[in-house]
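Retro notes, structure queue

What went well: the backlog is down to a handful. What didn't: a couple of records were mislabeled last round, so from now on we paste the full input next to the output in the thread. Example, using Mannosyl-3-phosphoglycerate phosphatase from Thalassococcus halodurans:
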Amino acid sequence: MTGTPTSLLTVFSDLDGTLLDHDTYSWEAAKPAIELLASREIPLVLASSKTAAEMSVIQSEMGISHWPALVENGAGVTDSNSVDLDRSEYDAILMRLTAVPAELRAKFTGFAQMTDQEVADNTGLSLEKASKARLRAFSEPGLWAGTDEELNTFGEALAEQGISMRRGGRFLTLSFGRTKAEGMRDIVEKLGATMTLALGDAPNDAEMLDTADFGVIIRNDHAPEMPALRGLQTGKITKTTKSGPVGWNQAVLEFVERYDIRKAP
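Corresponding output:
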């Protein structure tokens, strides 16, 4: 990993609808908390469905390029700004997808089928950012146009091909099943963290929230309902009343102060 933490806490955060505003993709409201983490040398590891190409830009803007990131919903880990990734896993997903019955496959429109403009239209991203979103190596996000019953059947057909399906706040994402939680465990081991805080807003963040020592569900009225999590019963996981970066900022500031997380002497 490129960074060497002096804090024993590591913060893992989803992006869209969590640290980034659902509509504007802005993280400006979370700047005070991000700056506090930086001042105390607390690693901020971004964990998102975004690609390595997208993530490197956001990390650079936030000043956290020296920390690793979980890309494409945890299917891959990056620890530098390099985006020259092996795409063989992505190609294998697309190949196996062709084995799914055509009537089900027609209900799913993945990024590989979209142009940069279509991705931009469906995400609100600029054309440049949409192009980076299509530079995939580990997973295939897309839009679902069928019923819930058809979606269940689609998931079963994908499982027969060894492909996992996850619903996020905006897209359905296909991969070979590596999760944010699994990636988080690898990074925790490499960074030597003894305390972890995870923040997310959608069902594809559930395992990461449950795996962390502490979790925060960021309010997102646009996301599918979060499944029941064990930590909600014990108080290990809490919910914000405010959404997006405003809720994220408040939650992180309160957590760091409550546990008096500082740089190691």
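Agreed that this is the format going forward. Reviewer comment attached to the example: The CA atoms of residues 7 and 42 lie 5 Å apart.
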